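Weekly structure sync, notes
Attendees: PL (lead), two postdocs, one rotation student
Agenda item 3: pending single-chain targets
PL asked that the sequence for the first pending target be pasted directly into the notes so everyone works from the same version. It is reproduced below exactly as submitted, 396 residues in total.
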Amino acid sequence: MARSAPPPLALYVHIPWCVKKCPYCDFNSHAQRDAGEHRAYVDALLADLDADLAQFEFARERPIVSVFFGGGTPSLFAPELIARILDGCRERLRFRADLEVTMEANPGTVEHGRFTGYRAVGVNRVSFGVQSFDDDLLARLGRIHSAADAERALREAQDAGIAEINLDLMYALPAQTLAGALADVERALALQPTHLSHYQLTLEPNTEFAARPPVLPDEDLGWDMQEACQARLAAAGFAQYETSAYAPVAHRCRHNLNYWTFGDYLGIGAGAHGKLSDNGTIVRTAKLKTPKSYLAKAAGAERMASCAPIAERELGFEFLMNALRLVDGVAADLYAQRTGLDRTALAPIVARAVADGLLVDDDSRFQPTADGRRLLNELLIRFLPDRGRDRHSGRG
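Predicted structure, written out during the meeting:
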């Protein structure tokens, strides 16, 4: 089946440095040793983008719907460097007039007055990695900020005129109680952010916590925390719209919604990933991970750690792996539009999932039930390639 018009196109910019690597973090981040590399890194980002656009020329003509500065800690970069990146990208790409520009920030790295500078150069959404408002828990997590730092940074962003603000909160932290998890949510709501990311601490491979695991709340207590915090957020008008995302409808993150609806995105920077659709082929890209290697090779073909089309047999699973994270799911017609596949081939799997109470019985949508969201991995496994030939048995 032919695909329709190409999906929306976003831009992801990865800033790989942070002050200190947190013991739970498995992102591509590296402790900063020389801030003098920042200017060279900006040059590398733009050279990387030039190389991408030479390789994927069609991307020049498609409007960019959102830009996301992730990390690492993008707030280590001064406003003038963020301006150089945005200005350089604007010269090469078509930015929509209503462009959403998000920058992740660590409350412990933001200097006084910087948010005024970020707002002036085009940043209109900030995502703070708060994690908790309990100073003891922040210390256990290896964070460099305090609860007071988080509150000060958020208020400075609001005072600078940045209207869209997300707070990242974790729950099921070492020695955390149910009352403690709810207290974090209350303090977050008191600061009047427009969006909250609320997710459970997990022990990821190749992290310090995986090597030396802390004692975490048990599964039942973790579930109690999730349910109680979800209820409090809902009462405050923060509806859950994705596995770990909560916001009023008008404040949902457009950049992340593009990921979850299988949109396209250019990815520039060390370790950045991209997904690009053109002429019936969908390609995934990934850049070299270490800053040193990336800085040396950002302008050439060697900047790519990988660049390969998604096999047709994998497309359906990749689409659903994203779409089924959404509480409301997606219109069933979007499956064909974004993958070029006929969704009727999924009918037997969908019927079984409906019968088992994991999908809503609605031919017009792919939508998980409450049990489907809670058991998302079990639901997704059913759609793995070759599942129907019994080669597999049947993150939230």
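Discussion points:
- The chain has 15 helices and 16 strands.
- Residues 37-55 form the longest helix (19 residues).
Action: rotation student to compare against the earlier draft before next sync.
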